[in-house]
Specification:
alpha+beta; four-stranded antiparallel β-sheet; about 180 residues; five-stranded antiparallel β-sheet; elongated; 9 strands
């Protein structure tokens, strides 16, 4: 038998309440999508920059450890290889490498050489046995990493730059950071 007091009360959600909840959820989701896209693009830039910088550091360390010249070659798609400049039994032609598909998916690179000329296809730098880069004009000096503006508007993109010093150290910095900032180039 039904109790008269519980029979009058309906349990559940009305159609108006459900519609209101769905509308609020849709509004919040539409506000989150652009910031998620910006976060995803900037994460892609950071990951690619760190992978390329680790390749530079590996080439420098291998040159010192093997006591011979080692070359770092960067392709325009983000792929890189580390190899010995002169192949011997103790120093192979290919020490390590990463493919462009693994690193550079959806990024754009600007490769700048020591003579400030830009190169888009590939560039390289050879480290000597003390870990210093060669000073030839065609040697890699700077790498600018960004995503194409078709994927992320320039205003939302956080471009990064890798600068190679005369001593062979690579530094990851933000070319758009305010002067005096520790992350500025």
């Amino acid at each position: 038998m039904l109790n008269a007091t519980t029979g009058d009360r309906e349990r559940g959600v009305s159609l108006i309440e459900m519609s209101t909840a769905l509308a609020v959820t849709a509004i919040l989701a539409s506000m989150a999508v652009p910031s998620y896209s910006a976060w995803q693009g900037n994460t892609r830039i950071r990951a690619s920059a760190e992978a390329i910088q680790s390749g530079l550091n590996l080439a420098r360390a291998e040159a010192v450890a093997r006591n011979t010249s080692v070359t770092f070659t960067l392709q325009g798609n983000g792929g890189w290889t580390v190899s010995c400049a002169a192949v011997t039994a103790n120093c192979p032609a290919g020490i390590h490498g990463r493919s462009g598909a693994e690193i550079g998916t959806g990024i754009s690179l600007a490769l700048v050489q020591r003579d400030n000329s830009a190169e888009n296809s590939s560039a390289s730098v050879t480290f000597n046995s003390s870990g210093r880069p060669d000073t030839a004009a065609s040697s890699l000096r700077r790498i600018d990493i960004d995503v194409p503006s078709s994927l992320l508007p320039s205003a939302q993109s956080r471009e990064l730059r890798i600068v190679l010093s005369d001593l062979g150290r690579s530094r990851l910095c933000d070319p758009n950071a305010a002067s005096g900032s520790p992350t500025a180039c």
